[in-house]
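Figure-free illustration: sequence to structure, shown twice.
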Amino acid sequence: MDTAWLKGASPILISQDFYRLDERYRFEGSERLDNFVTGEFLVDVGYGCQVVLTNPTSTPRKLDLLLQIPRGSMPVNSGFFTRGLTVQLQPFATASFEYAFYFPAAGDFLHYPAHVARDGDLVAFAKAAPLHVVATPTVVDTT
């Protein structure tokens, strides 16, 4: 796999964010905002992951996308452990993909983030981060 693009800018943008299935959005006044999880995850609570790909160029791109639920989690909503997709991303286009999972036990789990390849070469990947899962919240959201 060629990673020469790491020395320059990737032509593909990717983001990956998690949210609770029962609290997808939050509201500030009349504005609906994403309610992404930025701290700990809870045992036996359903979560979703939103992966967004953007092609900011005028060239169409045929890409291979690899998605995977976090280690220690189980798929829900007709989900999967790992899935590969072929994505045709038109010029200046954005595509989003979502999947769902839950954690049956507490712990600290690694997550292999979404990766994007083109013709077998890695072109983009989301940021990797360990996920902290607890049985009861240690931080209470007062909002």
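We now fold a second protein in the same way, so the two outputs can be compared directly.
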Amino acid sequence: KYQADKFYWPGTVVVFGGEKEITQSTESHDSRIAGVVSTEPAYLMNSGDTRDNALSVALLGRVPCSVVGNIRKGDQLVSSTIPGVATKYSIDHYNPGMIIGKALADYNSDTPGVIEVVIGRL
């Protein structure tokens, strides 16, 4: 668990920063990626953390993630300019540490939606 500056729904892309430990992403290809707010963590470190807005953040594994744009299975995902939403990685904007994970489903819309993503060492 990480303490967020406010409550964020599962699937929200978060970065290290803000008023507490984490906040939702707001920059494209941000290298401060912490992970994605999790729905059902298999293993929860700091599970006893009862502070306000202590959120479960997926660091490894499979998790629903908010996404936008034209995404195909296997595409690497990064933060977008839409708060808390991921998009397909662009080689033109490389920044070490920016990869969130890889898409497990296709998605193609300018409106944010949710797909499953593999988070972690890729």
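Summary for the second example: Residues 74 and 103 are 5 Å apart (CA to CA).
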